[in-house]
Amino acid sequence: MTKHHAVELVPCDPQWPQAFERIRDRLLALLPQALSIDHIGSTSIPGMTAKPLIDIDIVLPGLGHIEGATRVLLAEGYEPRGNRYDDEVWAFLSRGSVPAERVYLCPSGNGTHRNRLAFRDYLIAHPQAAADYAALKSRLAAEFRMDGDRYTAHKREFVNAIVARALTGDG
């Protein structure tokens, strides 16, 4: 039985970049070993409709750092959301904060992290691709309003195509 959460998309909030800066400063103080703390996902793309959730990748020096960083996040009230993407990525959710935060721990050199940055940077550089993605998300949100898993699954094809284009330097 999967949990069904409504897919809620909101217009781009101009405060999202500032919110990320504030969160990053706090996370860096908690996890000084982090190599980078990156704003990813739709809230990192100017003008993009998004779930009101700041997505953040925290890159750690290696797998040996995941356990300690996990303890820090749990102590700060983040909920563990499990290992994701069949890759070395661990997700955490902070519902209490405004905006809410979804934080991912991953080791240096992680493929999922590389793909997310490639996707973000490509959409920032290609407004038409970003507009296509926004339109796709709106359509899927209407179709799968109560099924976040299927909403995400149907986005994947578009995301994968953009990542492939970005990584091959095509277009």
Summarize this entry quickly.
It comes from Rhizobium leguminosarum. By secondary structure, this protein is of the alpha+beta class.
Which characteristics define this entry?
5 strands; alpha+beta; five-stranded mixed beta sheet; 5 helices; 171 residues; Beta Polymerase, domain 2; 19% strand
Describe the fold and architecture:
The chain contains 5 helices and 5 strands; from the N terminus they run αββαβββααα. The chain has one domain: Beta Polymerase, domain 2 (2-Layer Sandwich). The mean pLDDT is 93. Strand 4 (89-94) and strand 5 (100-107) form a beta hairpin. The radius of gyration is 16 Å and the shape is globular. It has helices at residues 16-30, 66-75, 111-125, 127-143, 148-168, and strands spanning 36-40, 53-60, 79-84, 89-94, 100-107. By secondary structure, it is α+β, with helices and mostly antiparallel strands. The chain is 46% helix and 19% strand.
Strand content: 15-25%
Please provide the ordered H/E string of secondary-structure elements.
HEEHEEEHHH
> CATH top level?
Alpha Beta
How are strands sequenced across the largest beta sheet? 1-2-5-4-3
Separation, N- and C-terminal Cα atoms: 42 Å
The number of helical segments is 5
User: If you compute it from the alpha carbons, what radius of gyration comes out, rounded to the nearest whole angstrom?
Assistant: 16 Å
Which spans have pLDDT < 50 for at least 5 consecutive residues?
A: none
Could you say what the CATH topology is called? Beta Polymerase, domain 2
Taken from the alpha-carbon principal axes, the silhouette is globular
Count all strands and give the number.
5
Give the count of structural domains. Answer: 1
CATH superfamily: Beta Polymerase, domain 2
Portion in helices: 40-55%
Indicate the structural class: alpha+beta
Overall average residue pLDDT = 93
Largest sheet: 5 strands, mixed
The second-level CATH architecture is 2-Layer Sandwich
